[in-house]
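Please review this pair:
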Amino acid sequence: MTFYDSHGKAVAYLDNDEKHIFLYSGKPVAYLHDVAVYGFNGHHLGWFQNGWIRDLRGYCVFFTEDATGSGPAKPAKSARPAKSARSAKPAKSAKYAKHAKAANSLSWSILSGEAFFNQ
C-alpha cells in the first residue's frame, strides 16, 4: 500500500506485514498499532483510517488508492519510485499515551511528506 502526500507524490509504503511504514529510500519511519500511527521513538503521530493518515489535529497528511470518506480533494498521483533496500527496523521505544482523536478535517495538514514522520 502506497501513501501519497497532498501533491500526489508517493512518499512511503506499508510493508507486507501490514504494520511497518517505510520511505521509498528504505528507511523505516513508523508502525501501526490498531488505527494509531507511531514513530519508533514511541511518539503517537496520527491516525490511519479509511485509507487516510491524519495528523493529531485531524488534518489529512497522506492518502492511499483505497481512501474513502471525507477528506480534501486528492491530487493526481505521480509514479511511485523504485523501493530501495530496506534498512533494519530500529527497536521500538515504549509508546507514549495515545492522544484523543480529533474530528476529521476536510483539509490537508501543514506537515509535509517526510516531515510528518520526524515529529
